[in-house]
């Protein structure tokens, strides 16, 4: 086996708490405007539009479109569904930027610092580059590069996203490892030739709702990024 030289990370759910953060941002922005709804349900509804929007690009029905723009289309749909058409444009802009203000899980920043001592590291996300930069700056994450959908001009789980990440680091696919909390992401990465590590995020969609263990074969399975750093020998 080729030694692993680079680690690529899924972001939404694996590194950051999208549900709690989007719910918080919506509450902070809309409560002063007299809105009282189930904030977690609002966050879930936004996330439920995520894959269908990207499938428009993956299928070729839409040209490549940055995730920020897809998120904005989704937001307008969800506001209509929640009876919030009265929300003004400036508030919609801020609501859409909530995805740039997500909070990392507590283990992420210290574990990534350890992992970076032994490997090149980068996010391999469907999020656009400016989104990844803002999340890194907000949460104190230090990357060697940012790869993923905007580089590949396509969305995971298309093979081009994983392969372009490996190529950007001058690595063969088998010299890289995809780290994610979602079995479907890891299955696609493995099919593209990458090695894989599953990180459990059991509370991703609320208490006890995330994946506790991978449903596909993986090279490494851990309960946290701290454990991954331990398993990979990063002191």
What this model shows, in words?
The chain is an alpha/beta fold. The chain has eleven helices and eight strands. It has helices at residues 18-30, 39-48, 50-58, 67-81, 89-96, 108-116, 129-139, 149-152, 159-168, 183-191, 225-231; strands at residues 6-9, 16-17, 103-104, 120-125, 147-148, 176-180, 195-199, 220-222. It has a six-stranded parallel β-sheet with strand order 5-4-1-6-7-8, sandwiched between helices. A two-stranded antiparallel ribbon has the order 2-3. Helix 10 links the parallel strand 6 (176-180) and strand 7 (195-199). Helix 1 (18-30) packs across helix 2 (39-48), helix 4 crosses helix 5 and helix 6 (108-116) packs parallel to helix 11. The model has no long low-confidence stretch (mean pLDDT 97).
Helicity level: 40-55%
Rg over CA atoms, rounded to whole Å, is: 18 Å
The number of helical elements comes to 11
Strand order of the largest sheet: 5-4-1-6-7-8
Number of strands: 8
Give the SSE string: EEHHHHHEHEHEHHEHEEH
- Structural class by helix and strand composition: alpha/beta
Distance between the termini: 23 Å
| Principal-axis shape | globular
Average the pLDDT over all residues and give the rounded result. 97
Provide a brief overview of the structure:
By secondary structure, the protein is an alpha/beta fold. Helices cover 45% and strands 12% of the residues. It has helices at 18-30, 39-48, 50-58, 67-81, 89-96, 108-116, 129-139, 149-152, 159-168, 183-191, 225-231; strands at 6-9, 16-17, 103-104, 120-125, 147-148, 176-180, 195-199, 220-222.
């Amino acid at each position: 086996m080729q030694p692993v030289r680079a680690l690529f990370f899924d972001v939404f759910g694996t590194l950051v708490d999208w549900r709690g953060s989007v719910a918080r941002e919506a509450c902070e922005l809309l409560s002063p405007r007299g809105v009282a709804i189930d904030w977690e349900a609002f966050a879930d509804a936004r996330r439920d539009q995520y894959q269908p929007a990207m499938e428009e690009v993956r299928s070729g029905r839409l040209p490549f479109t940055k995730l920020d723009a897809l998120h904005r289309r989704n937001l307008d749909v969800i506001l209509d569904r929640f009876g919030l058409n009265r929300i003004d444009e400036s508030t919609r802009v801020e609501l859409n930027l909530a995805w740039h203000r997500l909070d990392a899980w507590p283990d992420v920043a210290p574990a990534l610092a350890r992992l970076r001592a032994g490997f090149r590291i980068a996010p391999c996300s469907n999020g656009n580059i400016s989104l990844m930069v803002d999340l890194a700056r907000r949460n104190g994450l230090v990357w060697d590069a940012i790869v993923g959908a905007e580089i590949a001009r396509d969305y995971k789980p298309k093979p081009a996203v994983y392969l372009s990440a490996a190529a950007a680091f001058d690595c063969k696919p088998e010299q890289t490892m995809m780290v994610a909390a979602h079995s479907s992401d890891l299955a696609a990465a493995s099919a593209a030739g990458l090695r894989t590590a599953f990180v459990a995020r059991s509370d991703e969609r609320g208490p006890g709702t995330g994946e506790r263990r991978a449903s596909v074969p993986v090279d490494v399975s851990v309960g946290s990024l701290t454990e991954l750093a331990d398993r990979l020998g990063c002191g």
